Amino acid sequence: xxxxxxxxxxxxxxxxxxxxxxxxxxxxxxxxxxxxxxxxxxxxxxxxxxxxxxxxxxxxxxxxxxxxxxxxxxxxxxxxxxxxxxxxxxxxxxxxxxxxxxxxxxxxxxxxxxxxxxxxxxxxxxxxxxxxxxxxxxxxxxxxxxxxxxxxxxxxxxxxxxxxxxxxxxxxxxxxxxxxxxxxxxxxxxxxxxxxxxxxxxxxxxxxxxxxxxxxxxxxxxxxxxxxxxxxxxxxxxxxxxxxxxxxxxxxxxxx
Amino acid sequence: xxxxxxxxxxxxxx
Lengths: 256, 14
Fold this sequence. Notes:
The structure holds 2 protein chains of 2 kinds. Chain A is mainly beta. Chain A has helices spanning 9-19, 72-79, 141-152, 209-215; strands at residues 2-6, 25-31, 34-40, 46-53, 57-62, 66-71, 87-92, 98-104, 111-117, 135-140, 157-162, 166-173, 176-183, 196-199, 203-208, 224-229, 235-241, 244-250, 253-254. In chain A, the strands form 3 sheets. In chain A, strands 6-2-3-4-18-17-16-10-14 form a 9-stranded antiparallel β-sheet. The longest helix of chain A is centred in the middle third of the chain and has 12 residues, at 141-152. Chain A is globular, with a radius of gyration of 19 Å. The N and C termini of chain A lie far apart (52 Å). Helices cover 0% and strands 14% of the residues of chain B. Chain B starts with a strand and ends in a 10-residue tail after the last strand. In chain B, 7% of the residues are buried. The mean pLDDT of chain B is 89. The interface between A and B is medium-sized, with 24 and 14 residues. Strand 19 of chain A pairs antiparallel with strand 1 (3-4) of chain B.
């Protein structure tokens, strides 16, 4: 059986909020190392991979591999009943029909209990190869969100160019064009506000802004986001959590 | 115009 107690329900709320517009139904794969999820969007352009390590729970118990097939809309409805600061306990049997969720406030004088029906989801897992990326950019997640939102007003796609000292996001559309250039800089007082670039070789790749705007719904998970780029390889957009991550992969646009 | 690639052409089925 699965029994996992999360100190802050907000963690799961934010994870679900981050991915629910990209995927509707998915399996939460639970085993002794934690809870993981991998799912593609309907059009097979993007892939989300989420991991919550057992270390993020206390206690955590899962003696067998259990796949929890969940409709994320339903889960969102139930999680709305939880405050971010509530303690959340997830429970499921070995071959479960439902997932049990208990929310307790920090004073422990209120507890709410919900059961959510599970579904059989036949999901194929993709093998994500280890990649040595040509460029890795870390920037504030709010900044990335703003850039994607702003540029999406002008165009469907953005070209991301990483060089040694800066990263440039540019687009062109019917009404004109726009670009945002971020120079590498270190903010010693607020390290989360820094922009850092690790470069093996310069890259320039074009991606759909619709998907990037969607990924940015994960911004609440982390103050920074990491973009990993290589020519003709999906973009990796990673939000790190205290004991896990949400990673999005986005297939590039190809051709002229 | 650029065409949108599919994630499945980069990551194979397990």
